[in-house]
Amino acid sequence: MADVTAQRMLKKRFLNRRFLIQAVLVTFLFGCVVMYYCPMALRQLSFYKSSYKTDIINLNHLMKREFYEQNCFEGRLEHTLAKLPDNLLKWSKAYHRTCQILWKKFHTIYVVNVREGKQNFPQNFIKVVRHWLADNEELLKEAYNQNVIQVSNYYSLEQTVFNLLRSKRPTSKTNEDIRDYVKRLAVQTKKMCDFCQYKTRTAEDIFGRVEGLYSVSASNTFKLEKWHSLFLSKKHDPTDLTEEEFLDLFNTSLKWFKKAHSLDKDSCYPMMIYDTLPKGGASQFHPHAHGFLASQYLSHMGIQHKAAISYKDENDSEYWNDLIELHHALGLSVMLGDAVAISPLTPVREHEIIILSTYPGTDLFRLFYYVIQTYYHKLERMCFSTGLGFPVMRPSITTLPAIIRIGTRGQCNSHTNDVSSLELYMMQNVHVDPYIIIRDLQETVEKLMKTSSLGNEMVKLNYD
Ligand SMILES: *[C@@H]1O[C@H](CO)[C@@H](O)[C@H](O)[C@H]1NC(C)=O
Ligand SMILES: *[C@@H]1O[C@H](CO)[C@@H](O)[C@H](O)[C@H]1NC(C)=O
Ligand SMILES: [Zn+2]
User: Fold this and answer.
1) Which residues cross the membrane (predicted)?
2) 385 and 360 share a domain?
3) For a pLDDT cut of 70, what percent of the chain falls above it?
């Protein structure tokens, strides 16, 4: 009897153990299944989707320009900012679904305000105004009744005021030809140039220098960031760089970002600035770009980044791709391979262009070079300023695409400053029609693309 009880108890204990093992096994298996399927299911839900990726700049879904003209603008798009309100009126009446969606996106991002300014002129002053406006009676009529067009971006909070008539007002003339001025500066600065003698007259990074065929890096002696360096071309004259030399300069900067990031994983936000000539803000004549590898997007780039995030949050749509399509529809874009240039509706400076691509690749920098050639050869603007932002260098839920923003800085050899309290503390102010730079850039791209023999890729800023 006692034996039987002992046996039963033994069996029970054994069963208990088996049960336990089974329970553990089942839980384990169930856990695995849940852990595998749950994220898959979650990913289907929209709130999970709001974990952002880079806006992949996708130019393939864009229709031909004629499509937009035909369907959104009653077959006739006016290629001047002065007629933006008329274009918008046509757009509002479009039947095509694509145009209607775009129209809604336009009004989600932009607010266009037309403010009419009226005035009278005393008899004697009319003569003066007529003279300023080159005896053009149409323009004189406009002078009495001026349309000020204010465009605001709801997400970046940028606002630009356009009064195209202002470009007709008198400005101080300079008597020296702009090309002679640049040549004179080139000669004057050559002998004492620090950057021509970079080996002995510039600092080095703790990892030394990064060098390309036509360019080299130097540490910036007085820093604005933990990682702050200069990229110098081996030529002294910024107006004399070939496409190959220009691309090499930025290729060197990309190599430098990779090098610095390999030593400091927390610094992963690559940004650059590039100015030319004293009026453009450059402290030295010699071509030099600044590179910053920061722990976040800095001010202006941060605002752009934030704008894209808010837009995506509110509309579940991609800011940069939508911005591109809006400008493309309005005839304010130029394409080159996987990069696109738009003349933004809220420019900071005259002849402004924003170039976008998913990564900082060859097409992006070629387009950059072509913008500069357009400034030099079609617009005779030798001074410009540029801000560049690249994707975050580590897997990140949010990042900017590769973005280059560039604008001219007025007449290079004039004494008048092109920046005043207006743009520093009030609003952006541009008198030049954004359609002009787009037309000129398109021509430059068509011309230079044919002669360009570059097949080289840029260094990839991948997260490896
Ligand atoms: C985007 O979101 C805002 C705010 O919710 C809304 O007013 C707007 O209509 C949306 N735009 C589009 C194109 O869906
Ligand atoms: C950039 O540098 C890489 C590595 O040195 C090189 O293979 C590539 O050809 C360069 N690209 C250009 C456009 O110079
Ligand atoms: Zn030099």
Assistant:
1) 19-37
2) yes
3) 90
Give domain status of residue 398, yes or no. yes
Any atom of ligand 1 within 6 Å of the Cβ of 313? no
Mark which of 168, 186, 219 sits at the end of a domain. 168
Fill in the DSSP letter of residue 82: G
Residue 15's SS3 state is helix
Evaluate whether residue 461 is within a structural domain: no
- For residue 449, the CA-to-ligand 2 centroid distance in Å is 19
- Report the predicted TM-score, pTM, of the whole model to 2 decimal places: 0.88
224 pLDDT higher than 50:
yes
Domain end call among 111, 143, 168? 168
Ligand nearest to the CA of 454: 2
Q: Same domain for 186 and 308?
A: yes
> Which residues contact ligand 2 via a Cβ below 6 A?
247-248, 251, 362, 456-459
Burial class (CB in 10 A: 0-12, 13-18, 19+), 148: middle
Question: How would you class 372 by CB atoms within 10 Å of its CB: exposed for 0-12, middle for 13-18, buried for 19 or more?
Answer: buried
Mutation choice for ligand 1 from 103, 104, 314, 319, CB with most ligand atoms inside 8 A: 314
pLDDT in tens, 37-67: 655 555 444 444 434 455 789 999 999 999 9
Whether residues 187 and 276 share a domain: the answer is yes
Pairing mode of beta strands 428-430, 159-162? parallel
Whether residue 445 is contained in a domain is answered as yes
Nearest CA to ligand 1 atom 6: 108
For residue 235, the ligand closest to its alpha carbon is 3
Highest mean pLDDT among 9-23, 97-111, 166-180, 417-431: 97-111
Specify the residue with its C-alpha closest to ligand 2, atom 3: 459
Whole-angstrom Cα distance, residue 133 to residue 126? 11
Identify the nearest ligand to the CA of 105 by its number: 1
Ligand nearest to the CA of 369: 2
Instruction: Determine if ligand 1 sits within 6 Å of the CB of residue 414.
Output: no
Helix-helix angle 362-377:243-263, to 10 degrees: 130
pLDDT at 417: 86
Mutate to test the pocket of ligand 2, among 457, 460, 461, 462 (most ligand atoms within 8 A of CB): 457
Asked if residue 226 has its Cβ within 6 Å of ligand 1, the reply is: no
Q: How many domains does the chain have?
A: 2
Each residue's pLDDT tens digit, 149-181: 999 999 999 999 999 888 776 666 677 899 999
Q: Is 104 a pocket residue for ligand 1 (Cβ < 6 Å)?
A: yes
Domain holding 261, by residue range, is: 178-451
Residue 132, exposed/middle/buried by CB under 10 A (0-12, 13-18, 19+)?
middle
Same domain, 231 and 305: yes
